[in-house]
Automatic annotation (TrEMBL):
Alphabetized GO MF terms: DNA binding
Top-rank lineage group of the source organism: Bacteria
Protein name as catalogued: HxlR family transcriptional regulator
InterPro entries registered for this protein in UniProt: HTH_HxlR (IPR002577), WH-like_DNA-bd_sf (IPR036388), WH_DNA-bd_sf (IPR036390)
Start and end residues of each HTH hxlR-type domain: 22-120
A Pfam family recorded for this sequence: HxlR
Alphabetically ordered keywords of this record: DNA-binding, Transcription, Transcription regulation
Gene source species: Streptomyces curacoi
Length: 133
């Protein structure tokens, strides 16, 4: 599909992420934000409990992970399964839509990881010519 055809098809969609008031913009932010993207990627491997997920997504705070999971659950990307046990057990897993989003996101993640030597070389060149800031 060429770029012109892709643009025409995108214009036919009922939502436009470039419009300030479009609800798709919020979902895009949830998916592409640092913690949202990493959370979706981690859950692609399967269901995880909160603390397992927190360990998998190294560096995320409990508060940020909780907020991220709430947003992704609200968007229909993550399913929260609370078991009535003592202590309570809560598992998180991707919904079918979340799985589809995570697949696309993981393609981007793997591409970026594969290009890091080139990115790091570009950073070095930039810093050498413009000075590290």
């Amino acid at each position: 599909m060429d770029t012109t055809q892709e643009r025409t098809e995108a214009q036919d969609l009922p939502y436009n992420v470039f419009a300030k008031a479009c609800p798709s913009r919020g979902t895009l932010e949830h998916v592409t934000g640092r913690w949202g993207g990493l959370t979706l990627g981690a859950l692609y491997e399967g269901s995880l409990r909160f603390n397992e997920l927190r360990r998998r997504v190294d560096g995320v705070s409990e508060k940020m992970l909780s907020q991220t999971l709430h947003a992704l659950e609200r968007d229909g990307l993550v399913h929260r399964d609370a078991q009535p046990t003592n202590p309570p057990r809560v598992d998180y897993e991707l919904t079918p839509l979340g799985r589809e989003v995570a697949e696309r996101l993981l393609s981007l993640i793997h591409f970026v990881e594969g290009q890091m030597d080139e990115v790091l070389a570009a950073r070095r060149r930039y810093d050498e010519t413009r000075g590290a800031r």
